[in-house]
Design a protein that fits this description.
The complex is a heterodimer of chains A (about 270) and B (about 600). Chain A is mainly alpha-helical. In chain A, about 70% of the residues lie in helices and about 0% in strands. Chain A contains 11 helices and no strands. Chain B has 4 domains: about 120 residues, Immunoglobulin-like (Sandwich), CATH 2.60.40.740; about 40 residues, no CATH class; about 220 residues, von Willebrand factor, type A domain (Rossmann fold); about 110 residues, no CATH class. In chain B, strand 15, helix 12 and strand 16 form a beta-alpha-beta unit. The chains are: A mainly alpha (about 270), B alpha/beta (about 600). At the A-B interface, helix 4, helix 5, helix 7, helix 9 and helix 10 of A face helix 1, helix 2, strand 4, strand 6 and helix 8 of B.
Chain lengths: ~270, ~600
């Protein structure tokens, strides 16, 4: 893998020779974002609802200017638009254009999230919605004091690895193909309702949910086992303590609270 | 492990997939499901890198060109540190932030001690920086803290690479230039370390001529003078003496409060090292008497480089160890607090701070330290707080969760019983005590942001003065004539009676005894970090903020206390200084000079 990465990077540098800095990562991801938007936009303009296009564009520009994490908002806008404009159909086959559109959307989200990670580390990854709003207000007031609190590592100065971009694209394609395959597995046959004794509207979500849960649980079991086998002794002891405390904590809590109350009363004159 | 970014994406993706499937909008379902699968792939890769690959990383630290696990540093002198992260097997971690976990006693100068990098293959990663130790004592460098995340900011985890190194930090000392007499009074040049005392003895310089007394040695008869006067006269010689300097260093709990480098103890260490160096540079023997509320440790006066380093090492060890504070009224408050030991992988730096309120600052500080040094114990995979319905408000709930995680980690780090975790969650006093102990053990001298040394009853004056008086009396009893006793003593907070009946009475009696035996006594008292005494002609400054006013009030209090103590101690014949700077060292050297030549006041100086 490392040899492959080195070869691809060497090949890239033949076309983009810049021995000092290579290709800046932020620029590359911005370009990828713009290209993916070009793929996604015809879907909007073709639907006839011009207001949604403007909402999408205004939201995108606003979020980019604020340099906040925009991917979830973009994704939500896209979903809202599709839920309003996409017609209902009874065939689960997806066309090539729709698959390319899906890949475009995913590349847009990947590039957007990477771009934000590179350029805006100001919002902590585990920040709450309140801190996000506070950060927006600070940013609107041109107060950059929040930037000192960055906890997310960044690679601002690093060069872009071609392998990194390629793997992102490959993951996007694999995800879309896997999603299409899963959707094609879901039954649309009207007789399924009688066979599974379920309401028609519940058949597909429940089937997909069961498949996803099985896959997730299997993966979690494998990775979890690998992780648990490598637990250190203190980690294992902390886990056991947590589990032991879980059972009697209500009783002990009552005793402790009473003791604290008594102590407080004793100290009062 | 999941960040809020990922949580939002998962929420929208699940909602979109369900809506798409229910309304039979295949493209919406396709896109939402694709996002879910992409997140799943990223999660799998992150877990594999975290669980399987990261464990192959190891860390090596080079301090001043040495990778030894123990060593010696000097306070205030630059130290070059170099970190090397080595992968034992080929790994691929796209984004990781390494940070050398430094205790409070180490300060970074210049470059950052942080590196953000991607680890690929077996290629080692290096980063270097410069730091210096703030105060004498001990520095434990536990290892490197690592924060791993994926390239999109969806998952984050913390790990720790141990690289434990322990260093003894010797106190720094400087050369202090002293004035010298302008009047040439002696032609004789005694050997270094020997000083002429103008009292009768067995020296080589003539002191006086007196009439012969039976029993005088015949060789001391001055025959020419005897012939002139017609009676036998005897030559009386001066005494050749060394001037021994004995340093009494206060290490009681009150001197250990504050941030590293600003504690009274740090000032005392600097003074003791500098005075010892100055005395030994003119071949005067120097000794050490370390005392606190409980007892004393001593080094007999001696000469030479070995003695000097022995003094420095003893000072360094003394800065690390000490007795628990004397806290009135709260003894026995938390029986559990007395039972807990020290963190297993960190040597305890006793004493423990006294119990104080559980403040948000204390919680935040302990949370940061725990996450940096023991991130594995704070992970929700192993550390699972019990479920409760209350508190309901999200912010309070998050605080409770954080406290539960800290409590479980504390009960593992210290040998606490299993139910102690619940006790810690609901008992604020106990939690504050344990957190303070944790911070102290981790090398952080935690004190409240605005330390109020008064009213905290941290000083056990009776015990401290008793110990010092015994040590001083013992030194006088075994000492010879003409010694110099330097009392480096934290005294400025003493507000008790100054008479013989008060706690200071034993000490003043001991000083009187020393003075009666012709010894010189110097008392040097450090001031709390950053404060200076006001002078008589100083105009009151313009006080704009509340902090300035508090600071000025504290300055006034210290000045008044210093004046009161100066009057009392000078009345006893001791030289007094209330600062820990070069002027105090000069005062000691002046007194040493007086002790050498036997005069009562300093000669003219230029």
């Amino acid at each position: 893998m490392n040899n492959l990465e080195a070869s691809i990077d060497r090949l890239t540098k033949q076309f983009f020779p810049d021995p000092k800095h290579g290709i800046p990562a932020a620029g590359t991801y911005l370009a990828a974002l713009l290209v993916s938007i070009l793929i996604v936009m015809p879907q909007f303009t073709g639907s006839g609802d011009k207001r949604l296009v403007w909402v999408f564009l205004a939201g995108l520009i606003g979020l980019v200017l604020l340099r906040l994490w925009m991917v979830a908002a973009l994704f939500l806008l896209l979903q809202v638009k599709l839920s309003f404009s996409e017609p209902t159909r009874y065939v689960s086959e997806l066309s090539g254009g729709e698959l390319i559109f899906g890949v475009g959307v995913l590349v847009m989200l990947i590039a957007g999230s990477r771009l934000v990670s590179l350029t805006s580390p100001m919002v902590a990854p585990d920040s709450t919605m309140f801190s996000l709003i506070r950060t927006v207000i600070r940013r609107l007031r041109s107060d950059t004091s929040e930037e000192q609190n960055a906890v997310m590592p960044t690679r601002r100065g690093n060069t872009f690895s071609t392998m990194e971009g390629l793997t992102g694209l490959v993951r996007a394609i694999i995800s879309v193909l896997a999603a299409a395959y899963l959707l094609s597995l879901l039954p649309l046959d009207p007789t399924t309702r009688d066979e599974l004794l379920l309401f028609e509207w519940a058949v597909r979500p429940i089937t997909l949910g069961v498949i996803l849960i099985i896959v997730y649980q299997l993966t979690q079991a494998i990775l979890g086992t690998l992780g648990w086998r490598r637990l250190s002794e203190p980690e294992a002891r902390v886990y056991l303590r947590s589990e032991f405390v879980d059972w009697p904590h209500r009783d002990i809590r009552g005793v402790v609270k009473r003791q604290v109350r008594e102590r407080r009363n004793r100290r009062r004159p | 492990m999941l960040t809020n970014r990922a949580r939002w994406l998962i929420l929208f993706a699940v909602a979109g997939t369900v809506v798409g499937l229910l309304r039979r909008q295949e493209v919406l379902a396709l896109i939402s499901l694709s996002v879910m699968i992409w997140l799943f792939i990223e999660w799998c890769l992150f877990r594999v890198r975290l669980e399987l690959q990261f464990r192959h990383l190891a860390c090596e630290r080079t301090v001043n060109g040495s990778t030894s696990v123990t060593g010696t540093l000097w306070a205030g002198r630059p130290v070059s540190m170099s970190i090397r992260i080595v992968a034992r097997k080929a790994v691929r971690i796209p984004l990781v932030r390494f940070e050398d976990a430094l205790p409070e006693n180490m300060a970074v100068t210049g470059e950052e001690h942080v590196l953000e990098a991607s680890v690929s293959g077996n290629v080692p990663i290096r980063f270097s920086y410069k730091a210096h130790a703030r105060a004498a004592g001990q520095v434990i460098l536990p290892g490197v803290s690592a924060r791993i995340c994926d390239l999109h900011g969806l998952f984050i985890a913390r790990r720790f690479l141990p690289a434990r190194q322990s260093f003894r930090v010797l106190p720094t000392c400087v050369d202090v230039e002293t004035g010298y007499p302008t009047v040439k009074r002696f032609n004789a040049m005694p050997p270094p370390g020997i000083h002429r005392l103008q009292r009768a003895g067995m020296g080589s310089e003539l002191l006086e001529l007196r009439e012969y007394v039976p029993g005088d040695p015949p060789k001391s008869i001055a025959w020419k003078v005897s012939a002139k006067r017609g009676c036998l006269m005897t030559r009386q010689y001066e005494t050749d003496v060394p001037v021994r300097t004995l340093l009494f260093v206060d290490g009681s709990y009150g001197t250990r409060l504050g941030h590293f480098g600003q504690r009274p103890l740090d000032q005392l260490m600097f003074l003791a090292a500098t005075i010892a160096k100055s005395a030994m540079s003119v071949r005067d023997p120097a000794g050490l008497e370390l005392f606190d509320d409980a007892g004393t440790r001593s080094i007999r006066p001696g000469l030479g480089e070995r003695q000097f380093f022995r003094i420095l090492e003893e000072l360094s060890d003394f800065a690390t160890t000490g007795n628990d504070p004397f806290v009135r009224g709260v003894d026995g408050l938390n029986p559990l607090f007395h039972d807990i030991g020290h963190v297993r992988d960190l040597r305890g730096t006793r004493p423990t701070p006294p119990p104080c309120r559980l403040t948000p600052e204390l919680m935040n500080h302990a949370w940061t330290v725990c996450n940096r040094l023991w991130p594995e114990l704070m992970e929700s995979r192993v550390n699972r707080p019990p479920f409760t319905w209350f508190p309901i408000r999200p912010q309070r709930r998050a605080e409770r969760r954080r406290r539960s995680l800290l409590a479980t980690a504390l009960s593992e780090l210290y040998p606490l019983p299993v139910d102690a975790a619940i006790r810690l969650v609901h008992d604020d006093n106990l939690m504050a005590s344990c957190l303070q102990r944790l911070l102290t053990d981790a090398g952080f001298a935690w004190t409240s942001p605005l330390v109020d040394r008064r009213r905290r009853e941290l000083h056990n004056w009776h015990a401290k003065f008793e110990t010092l008086a015994i040590a001083l009396t013992r030194a006088v009893s075994v000492g010879r004539d003409n010694e110099l006793y330097v009392l480096l003593l934290d005294l400025v907070d003493f507000d008790g009676p100054l008479g013989r009946l008060g706690p200071l009475g034993r000490l003043t009696n001991a000083i009187r005894i020393a003075r009666a035996r012709h010894h010189r006594v110097v008392v040097i008292c450090p001031l709390p970090g950053g404060y200076e005494l006001l002078r008589a002609g100083d105009e009151p400054p313009e006080l704009t903020s509340m902090e300035d006013q508090i600071r000025y009030a504290e300055q006034l209090r210290l000045t008044a206390a210093a004046d009161r103590l100066k009057r009392e101690l000078r009345r006893l014949g001791a030289a007094v200084a209330f600062s820990a700077d070069r002027e105090s060292v000069r005062l000691v050297l002046t007194q040493a000079e007086l002790a050498r030549n036997g005069r009562s006041t300093a000669a003219g100086r230029r």
